[in-house]
Amino acid sequence: MKCKKIEKLLLRSFDDLLKDEEKENLESHLRSCLLCQAKRKEYETILGLLRKEEDSEPNPYFLERIQTKIKEREKDAVWTSVKQWSIRAVPISLLLVLLLAMVIILFSPPKSQELSQSEVLLLRNLNPLQETTTLLEEEKVENKNMMLIFTAMEEKNDIRRYFP
């Protein structure tokens, strides 16, 4: 076996995770390989130093400080979730407003507009200029009639002047 595989087996052997067959392969390799024997001694000294250390007592009021920090993080977690939700909600609400505006614009009934007289004439395929000329001719006739009336009145007034 290669030394890299043996090193992995060596690390697993300290946790008693090796099968019988793997243990036999490890031991046979360690008998023949001096490098792997040295690595085994290094790992054993490191583990020995780590196991010798006793569990230290926590500092006074450690538990209280940790609990307050946990509570603060829980409050912050709620606030951050609200922020994340609001960040997602703003574009979605803007999109909904735009869609609503588009629907209103597209599906709103058209406004009825009153047509001018010239537009009505154009829709009836009539010439608007011809209609205005007839109107102007009617005004001329009215003007002539008015002139006749006024001249007739003047004539009556003139007669009265001469015959008191």
Please explain how this structure is put together.
The structure is a single chain. With 164 residues, the protein is mainly α. Among the domains are: 50 residues, no CATH class; 46 residues. 80% of the residues lie in helices and 0% in strands. It is built from six helices and no strands. The longest helix has 46 residues.
> Which structural class matches the secondary elements?
mainly alpha
Q: What separation lies between the terminal Cα atoms?
A: 157 Å
Number of helices: 6
Quaternary structure type: single chain
Q: How would you spell out the order of helices and strands?
A: HHHHHH
State the low-pLDDT regions, or none.
none
Mean pLDDT, nearest integer?
A: 80
Cα shape: rod-shaped
Cα-based radius of gyration, to the nearest Å: 55 Å
The major pleated sheet works out as:
none
How are the secondary structure elements laid out?
Layout: H1 3-14, H2 20-32, H3 34-52, H4 62-107, H5 117-123, H6 128-162
Helix pairs in contact: 1-2, 1-3
Summarize the structure.
This protein has helices at 3-14, 20-32, 34-52, 62-107, 117-123, 128-162. With 164 residues, the chain is mostly helical. The protein starts with a helix and ends with a helix.
